[in-house]
Design goal:
Layout lengths: L7 H12 L5 H16 L3 H6 L7 H15 L4 H5 L1 E4 L2 E4 L9 H11 L7 E5 L5 H9 L4 E6 L2 H13 L5 E4 L11 E6 L4 E2 L8 H4 L8 E2 L6 H13 E10 L5 H6 L6 E8 L5 E8 L1
Parallel strand pairs: 3-4, 3-6, 4-5, 6-9, 7-8
Antiparallel strand pairs: 1-2, 9-11, 10-11
Helix pairs in contact: 1-2, 1-4, 6-7
Length: 284
Amino acid sequence: MFVADNRVQSAKSYFFEKLSGAFTPSECKSMWTTILNDFFGWSSSEILLNNNQRLSESDLLRIRAVVKRLQANEPFQYIMGTVDFADLKLKIDHRALIPRPETEELIEKIAGLGISFHTILDLCTGSGCIALALKKKFPKAAVLGLDLSKEALVLAEENAELNNLQVVFEQGDIFNWQSQEQFDLIVSNPPYIPEKEANSMKANVLDYEPHMALFVPDHKPLLFYKKIVSIALIHLKSNGYLALEVHEDLATQTRALLEVGAFKNQIICKDLQGKERMILAQKA
């Protein structure tokens, strides 16, 4: 047996020992809590009380399988198959990027505007996390999520069903997308990482998450934002809002795209770590 005995405490010791070189103690604790909650449905208080509970051999093998996959740099969210995001439980796997806390902050910035949006367009929707979170924030809104990836859209549909939210998901390339619709809010978290930065990225991102949702050519870092702004010029209603997640080093350059007569109140917002990661702008 790979653990001293089959008690929860022994399994926990094994988990922390095997992963201590790759993760901080707080990260290990968070993952361990998630595993026990997901595998056994235990609450935080039950986890504290059940240290001496005996686990079955199959339970121990499931825990070891998680450890092996983490040691292979697979993202924890992909291993568990779900992620908590903006009061939603979402399915997540290799078909789409893992929703980040920064994106949750973008949702809160939008909600903080105090406006009741009725028509919302989410460009590069991926797992559907933004579209679905906004539908939950604005239940009466008609929400459309657009993405190039068929696989991602299937996942987004699964997440809509899982959370009992009515969102329309459409396959399309934003570079040739055509529509007659007008929107109160256009939001996007598009690819924005220059390819040269791949060399400095962690293996759990680089080896597992879809590159088409991450990277842009080094010589065209604002490729998607230029197109999104052009879409907003046509499809955003007067006084409607454009909300973007951006590269922390390119926020000023991205805002410059909006410094034309069609937009007002262009604001760069910092995330909780003090990084310039979001832009809000209102159409004149």
